């Protein structure tokens, strides 16, 4: 269709990077691109922390399940949902901020995700590779302490950036009919479509891993969702001042 659409459709997670550094001017420009993302009610509720300290990187890698590329990538960013500056804005006008609402959590988290995706696309347009790091939420309280995050701020995920030192295939996505519905939600034909998609995913893993992993999408998801999903998150977020009402 055009170069932007082709770029978006060619996204791959990159976990091996060359040692070539990314200039700080480039990082600054990527963050400006992130700032240009849509933001609910002009809240601009995202703060980015660029972690350069090697010791902190090592601890973050450990918190995320020992993902070595967090420590090895030329650049590592943490995207935080941030309602703290809004408290400052209210204080500037002697206004009593009403915080803790679930809607505020949703809008701040969405802002951070939109911001980060702009950064990802901008980075890939420059030939950089990225991988999101949701594993920071494995030990989110330690991450928050390490980054000295105040109340009303929480780390949504991290992102490794660098020049790729691998060339993986693009991972096949669900068929369009499963995700695009007309006028109403209708999943009556989705089971059969997903079964066919499962075969495509099995072949992707077989090719990518030399047959050491052969798993379908539905097998992977069902195996994941029979387990608890970071049950510590609710209490942590409530301690941060989110999801109280």
UniProtKB/TrEMBL annotation:
It comes from the Bacteria. Pfam families: Nitroreductase. Residues 9-163 form the Nitroreductase domain. Keywords: Flavoprotein, FMN, NADP, Oxidoreductase. GO terms for molecular function: FMN reductase (NADPH) activity. It is an enzyme of class 1 (oxidoreductase). CDD domains: NfsA-like. Its EC number is 1.5.1.38. Belongs to the flavin oxidoreductase frp family. This is Oxygen-insensitive NADPH nitroreductase. The gene is nfsA.
